[in-house]
Design brief:
Blueprint lengths: L2 E5 L2 E4 L4 E8 L6 E8 L6 E7 L4 E4 L7 E6 L4 E6 L8 E9 L21 E2 L3 E6 L1
Length: 133
Amino acid sequence: EVQLVESGGGLVQTGGSLRLSCAASGFTLDAYAIGWFRQAPGKEREEVSCIKHSDGSANYADSMKGRVTISSDNAKNTVYLQMYSLKPEDTAIYYCAAVPFSKSRSSYFWTPTECNYWDYDYWGQGTQVTVSS
């Protein structure tokens, strides 16, 4: 059974940092595309970052570029999202999501720029990030 469990959210002041973790089970990171997404109250879910674990390539949303780093740990089967210089507008529930590579989504051709929340099948429960001004 595929499971994703996020942790690491919390309350932080403007300019602060947080590291979110996504512990994956039921699959190996090489076999899935992995992404972080967020949703603020009253807003549509949006991408933050996606990663291709096999080569470490990553993509970042313009809104967070330069303030976020995604990484993955094969031994722990965990994906991380390190966030810096947080702003109040970063306040949202942050979700980890995954979708398996397949014939229609080849791991060979897939790139992290394909980071659309509607393409992802499996979701964690989310972790709240609140940035105070």
